[in-house]
Design brief:
With about 210 residues, the protein is mainly α. Helices cover about 55% and strands about 10% of the residues. A hairpin with a 4-residue loop joins strand 2 and strand 3.
Length: about 210
């Protein structure tokens, strides 16, 4: 982690939200993530680092891998005011997607480091596109009894605007959408029916090879 940066304390409402979402990642994918994810939350990004609304920050050396996650005040305030674990709806879904995306990046990089495997940018971005829909559906199931998958898939894959000119973003987006279409065609609740498939996808990132 970024040891010299100011960390966000666990009692902070946003840190609690991130901690809870990280638990969903651990339990669904059965992966080993740090038990205290708040230790990686940065109050402020390092100087001269472009972060946008959120960013996973990585420092690598032959001796260590340091990770930190930064979220802008816009994201923090939106989810602190409208807790998605109380009610996930149009007022906070976009911000929820942002947090899921960065936690997905963290989980993929952390797992790759723990297993001494590499990860490509297309795999990193593609897995995040899968996870945004997946974990929103899981939260909505708990709140409403319905995953609202069609609506989530439409929002994430048809109405979302790709702002990056980098080709790997478009490739990742397209391949993640194809996997979701395949799973959706085989089940109305793919996040439950194909739990093993999604876990294998996370560990191997096979859809993006």
């Amino acid at each position: 982690r970024y040891k010299k940066a100011a960390m966000m304390p666990l009692e902070d409402p946003f840190a609690t939200l991130v901690h809870r979402l990280a638990w969903l990642f651990r339990s669904y994918y059965d992966i080993a993530l740090p038990t205290d994810m708040t230790a990686f939350l940065l109050r402020n990004p390092p100087p001269d680092v472009e972060t946008g609304r959120a960013s996973l920050l990585i420092k690598w050396s032959p001796e260590a891998l340091d990770l930190g996650i930064y979220f802008s005040s816009e994201i923090v305030e939106r989810l602190t005011t409208n807790d998605p674990f109380v009610r996930l709806d149009s007022t906070n879904l976009d911000a929820f997607f942002v947090v899921v995306e960065e936690l997905s990046h963290f989980a993929v990089v952390f797992t790759a480091a723990m297993t001494n495997t590499g990860v490509r940018l297309v795999e990193l971005e593609g897995q995040a596109e899968i996870d945004k829909v997946l974990f929103a559906a899981i939260v909505l199931i708990e709140q409403t009894g319905h995953a609202h998958l069609e609506h989530l898939l439409t929002l994430n894959f048809h109405q979302a605007t790709l702002t990056s000119p980098q080709p790997h973003y478009r490739t990742a987006h397209s391949k993640a959408h194809r996997l979701w279409r395949q799973m959706r065609a085989r089940s109305t609740t793919p996040h439950r029916t194909f739990h093993g498939t999604f876990r294998t996808q996370f560990l191997t990132r096979g859809a993006f090879k």
